[in-house]
Task: structure prediction
Amino acid sequence: MPHVTIKEIARRCGVSQGAVSYALNNRPGVSEATRARVLKVAAEMQWAPNRAARQLSAACTETFGLVLARSAQTLSEEPYFMGFVGGVESVLAEKSYSLALQVVADLDAELATYRKWAAERRVDGVIVVDLRVADPRIPVLRTLGLPAVLVGDPALADGMPCVWTDAAAAMTAALDHVASLGHRVIARVAGPPEFGDVWIRDQAYDVAARRLALTASTHHTDYSATQGADATREVLAVTPRPTAIVYDNDLMAVAGLAVVQALDLRIPDDITLVAWDDSPLCRITHPTLTALSHNVVGYGAEVTHRLLNLLAGAQPQSHLYSTPLLLIRESSAPPPRANG
Amino acid sequence: MPHVTIKEIARRCGVSQGAVSYALNNRPGVSEATRARVLKVAAEMQWAPNRAARQLSAACTETFGLVLARSAQTLSEEPYFMGFVGGVESVLAEKSYSLALQVVADLDAELATYRKWAAERRVDGVIVVDLRVADPRIPVLRTLGLPAVLVGDPALADGMPCVWTDAAAAMTAALDHVASLGHRVIARVAGPPEFGDVWIRDQAYDVAARRLALTASTHHTDYSATQGADATREVLAVTPRPTAIVYDNDLMAVAGLAVVQALDLRIPDDITLVAWDDSPLCRITHPTLTALSHNVVGYGAEVTHRLLNLLAGAQPQSHLYSTPLLLIRESSAPPPRANG
DNA sequence: CTGATAAGCCGAACCGGTTAAGTAACGACG
DNA sequence: CGTCGTTACTTAACCGGTTCGGCTTATCAG
Result:
């Protein structure tokens, strides 16, 4: 059962290949009668353009690339990415674009993938996540001339087009919240410092803590539940003990919650917890977790739209998607001896 | 800056295109001296084969397809898929294959995607997940002649190649465990009944409960945290109240844990909980959750290997990957009045 | 009635690889 | 010395689309 080609349609319609191509692509050059006949035959034979052939002549792959430089294990623990990918997909699907997803071990492998994709003409553009401070991917993508939209703060994007959420504003809101509850000693369980977003939060956290005259510490982790739990134990061993902890993701916050409970401390009576990356996790714990919520699916969709626009000739620019919203839940309360 | 092609290399080396192709593909037909020269020039010019061109002549895309028929929201909540995709990727990467991932709304859209991929010659084969009872995708894939490996029990695969984990054995182990602790009234918070894997577990649960003379009920959900919590509330409202609950995924188990705690019942003193799909979630709660653990990343890798073998000409067959292992943790204990 | 214009279609080149068929040079062998 | 076989290439067709130049024919203005 050979594949149905444009040539076969041309034979059946008694016209040339070229005419069929014009007809199928809704371009002038054929009569309406012929066009209708061609479309009918094509539909009957269930013709669809061979992707490789089209790519070869059009020099356009209709594919975007996304590289995730995390271990498969980490990815499976972080609900974030799957939602992001889902958002990307939702936009690509309606443009009949597709997504080339690659999971690699580290940043070097990610760079190698970009080089390969560029040389192979594998993708039309890429979406870059997990932006770093002085990110080495930026100069590489520039050199390769690979169109890209970065996911992260303009301060990290070095002039490349990017989409960002205002993490600094969100962090400020979180600290205003705990300070207004009366907390004076707080801690933060953060992600890896090399991640640009974590760096942004680091800055905002320090600035807000100073402004509010809070005693504040930061503990960096690898975002995993294990290190989130460990960091929480460290935090609670310090004197004076913090009465509020801000986490950089939901997984660590839930892990922290369990640690606090295992130590027979009560939430929120003894300790207030604030999570980042709101997800069902934050709503199913007991008590539920106050969290900085943002729409990850929509974020992925927005980034994809920007990349499409960029390829369509739009000016490269940075675009603020949103500011995470602080959702106050049961894990927030004044500290034990507030007003004391 | 035009792309470097084989023609350009041929020109520089003073040989024909064909000779360059032979040299680059390590095929006989060129002298060692020429081959070395060609390889050197190709390396200098950083040549990489244009993917579309190779696909067109080789009639092989070096791409596998994976369709996920879930909402982006659901996907972001289920850690399962990202781990699976990571496992698939780990195998594909070393073969320089790539993955076409598509997220769609429902089964019909999934079928449409397969039809499209087959017509476009978009992928060499597909990995099919979330196998259903009397799955409509099986006849479609057969008709299309699209090579596929199904992820699920041979009883559901209708003779197509599949990779499975022995869910029935795992369920039996879970019930043996709770029965041996002395529980007599148990409940199960299950996934959607149309999923084949859930159906398999339904059967095994009923059989084991009858054999062990347990009073057992099953509550079907959509796998979400919300419905997991709701089902748990229902379960706990029944008289006589079950003393052990088995969940079909980790997310619902964690949600259930919170519900139980919110009702001021103690785990494991009052209620024993068993989760499926062990993940960090099960280890970070307080108390930690007994769970049926299996290696999702390895599962994805195994499935991918099977698909590669299938395309290499191996006989289609079903292959048992593993039986989920029951990891007993803090959420397991005898019922309140055991030995009574 | 003639010449210009355009619509409709054909043939062929092209994208960048792979590969079958053909050819020239050379050594071995009867 | 002629023949066969091998090696090392070249040529050209091919994959399945897109696209350009040019050829027919019909249309219409002059």
Remarks:
- The CA atoms of residues 64 and 133 of chain B lie 24 Å apart.
- The two ends of chain B are 83 Å apart (CA to CA).
- Chain B touches chain A through 70 residues (CB under 8 Å).
- DSSP finds 15 helices and twelve strands in chain B.
